[in-house]
Write a structure and sequence with these properties.
It is built from 5 helices and no strands. The chain is an all-alpha fold. It has 2 domains: 1-56, no CATH class; 58-102. The longest helix has 35 residues, at 59-93. Belongs to the AMY1 family.
């Protein structure tokens, strides 16, 4: 009998924890949204993940973003090198600021 009460107490503590964290409200809202869908989705788990914001980026999206990041990093390095070159060329044609103030 004592074992039954101990597990009930743990369950009640866990339920209060979920309620306090807002998990119960979130799950309830998602399940209500699924219930109210006129056309039920083929994959209910994907529906729940999507509505909870759990679904990560699609694999194609991730690969596209990786490629874009690589391209942008290359462009950045090129622009840094060009900027350095242009600054050096500009310094050749501009008099030093000390001479300009005299």
């Amino acid at each position: 009998m004592a074992h039954y009460r101990a597990s009930e107490s743990k369950r009640e503590q866990f339920r209060r924890y979920l309620e306090k964290a807002g998990v119960l409200d979130s799950l309830t809202n998602v399940l209500v949204a699924l219930y109210e869908e006129t056309e039920k989705p083929n994959n209910a788990l994907d529906f729940i993940k999507h509505h909870l914001g759990v679904a990560g980026p699609e694999e194609d999206d991730s690969e596209t973003l990786r490629l874009e990041l690589t391209d942008l990093q290359k462009k950045y390095e090129q622009l840094l090198a060009e900027n350095k070159d242009l600054r050096n060329r500009l310094l050749q044609y501009e008099p030093a600021q000390e001479e300009a103030t005299e």
